[in-house]
Amino acid sequence: MENSNFVLGNAQVPSLYPIVYCSDGFCELTGFARAQIMQKGCACKFLFGPDTSDDHVAQIEKALECKAELKLELIFYKKNVNMILIWKFNKVNSMTW
Fold first, then answer.
1. Per the CB 3.0–4.6 Å rule, which of 56, 71, 85, 93 could disulfide with 9?
2. Which domain holds residue 14?
3. 33 in any annotated domain
4. Residue 96, pLDDT score
């Protein structure tokens, strides 16, 4: 897990699925401090930007609602608005970079 960049969400709080933990690498990669990330939703809407696909966003929301596995590559944005190209949304509350 040393080189993993991830967030962990609480699936017991439907509609938000708040982030309850984020790795140091996730903070470094996105440019956000841990305090800025904690309690945001694990769909990471705060990383959405103009090139993030609306279809992918809808798929993520549906997967969380249905507690279904979903694998996508998305365009998300760092705090400084630079694009992050490859994001794999692996499971309901498990995402890796």
1. 93
2. 6-96
3. yes
4. 47
For 52, which DSSP code? Answer: S
Q: Token pair 């998300």 is at which residue?
A: 76
- List of E strands, 1-97: 6-9, 19-22, 76-77, 83-84, 88-91, 94-96
Q: What is the CATH number of the domain that holds 26?
A: 3.30.450.20
8-state DSSP, 12 = T
Q: Largest Cα–Cα distance of the chain, in whole Å?
A: 33
Does 1 map to a domain? no
Cα separation, 45 vs 39, whole angstroms: 12
Give backbone dihedrals phi and psi of 57, rounded to 5 degrees, phi first. Answer: -60, -45
0.85 exceeded by pTM:
no
Q: Burial level of 89, CB count in 10 A (0-12/13-18/19+)?
A: buried
The neighbour count for residue 65, using CB atoms within 10 Å, is 12
